[in-house]
Amino acid sequence: MSEPARPQAYSAVSKWIHWIIAVAVFFTLTIGIRLPFIPEGPVQDYYFNVHRSLGVLVLGLAFARVAGRLAYGTPAPAATLTKFERIASTAAHHTLLSLLFLQPIVGWLSMDAYRADVEVFGLFTLPHILPQSDTAYAVLSWAHFILGYLMLIVLVAHIGGAVMHGFIKRDGVLDRMLPRGWFGFSDKR
Length: 189
Known about the structure:
By secondary structure, the chain is mainly alpha-helical. 65% of the residues lie in helices and 2% in strands. The protein contains four helices and two strands; from the N terminus they run αααββα.
């Protein structure tokens, strides 16, 4: 039995989920990096709530992204990629997708161990699933911190690769994830 044919391009759903995740991750990381420098009080509390809400949004979108990939498939790697680029791209994509799940879950668990509520955009509050534990909080918050910087490093590499392909090599790799008409690019189907 042969495998089903892979699509020639990413679906519009996959592209939009990718870009919504990109924006949400940008703001989540930016706020997360700045939080320790905001004085305790209502402003810091506000940004903590936004950070947590965006983290839950990213987790939900990660599930949607996987569902979209299963439903619509993904195109084969671009023929213009070198062997190194193919390996690096696959590693970066798998690492980022893993982090889109792992980072928000570890953040939620760390807040759970701290016994802080994770309220999502004022709509609902995530349930507590761990007992309160200073030790668990310390370990999980440290893991959340490290995973955040790992995500930042992998994102910089991912964006660097996209910029290289879109503006230096101009080989159509970036075009595959841009919605039609963005920055003068179009889908090459």
